[in-house]
Amino acid sequence: MIRMKKKVVLGLLAGVLAASLAVPSYAASRKPIKSIALTIKANIQPDTDFGQEEIEIESNSNKYSVDGYDILNDDFEWRDDSVPRIQITLTAEEDYYFQSLPKDKVTIKGGAEFKNSKREDSSTTLLMEVELQALNTSLHALTNVVLTEDGIATWDAIPAA
């Protein structure tokens, strides 16, 4: 009876040991993501509410995907002097994980600037804080354009021009 209990206990210990050794071998088989490259296209109009902006974030990587963004600004409406700040959520593909990334390993096309990042979920999720171009650096469309017979054009003033 005692020998039977010892065998059961030894069997259970062997099972626990085998299971604990399997986790590190899985972690060791994952490959690190050593750089990030994104393209951001943003269309944000002053005097519109948050949520009305159009922001497209793309990546051509097969190591991670873009899962969306959140607005980090404190206001509720975009203004002429707004500098949009967003948090982009990236998710690593099954065989990959995010390692700590310095700024020189993050490339963003579209005029945005990488600020910082934070890893979550055993480094399978990366939250990137990015600052887009200030709204007052882009010019609005011309309105009320009038061309005289002499070839002189006039139009309404353009904010931030």
Can you characterise this structure?
This protein is an alpha+beta fold and 161 residues long. Helices cover 17% and strands 39% of the residues. It has one helix at residues 2-29; strands at residues 31-33, 36-43, 48-49, 54-58, 64-71, 77-78, 85-92, 96-98, 106-109, 113-120, 125-131, 146-147, 153-154. The protein has a four-stranded antiparallel sheet with strand order 5-7-11-10, with no helix packed on it. A three-stranded mixed sheet has the order 4-2-9, with no helix packed on it. The longest helix is centred in the N-terminal third of the chain and has 28 residues, at 2-29. Residues 22-26 have low confidence and may be disordered.
Spell out the blueprint of helices and strands:
Elements: H1 2-29, E1 31-33, E2 36-43, E3 48-49, E4 54-58, E5 64-71, E6 77-78, E7 85-92, E8 96-98, E9 106-109, E10 113-120, E11 125-131, E12 146-147, E13 153-154
Parallel strand pairs: 1-8, 2-9
Antiparallel strand pairs: 2-4, 3-6, 5-7, 7-11, 10-11, 12-13
Which residue ranges are poorly predicted, with pLDDT under 50 across at least 5 consecutive positions? 22-26
| Helical residues, percent | 10-25%
How much of the sequence lies in strands comes to 35-45%
* Tally of DSSP β-strands: 13
Mean pLDDT: 83
Number of helices: 1
State the major sheet.
4 strands, antiparallel
Assign the structural class, choosing from mainly alpha, mainly beta, alpha/beta, alpha+beta, or little secondary structure.
alpha+beta
Radius of gyration (Å): 26 Å
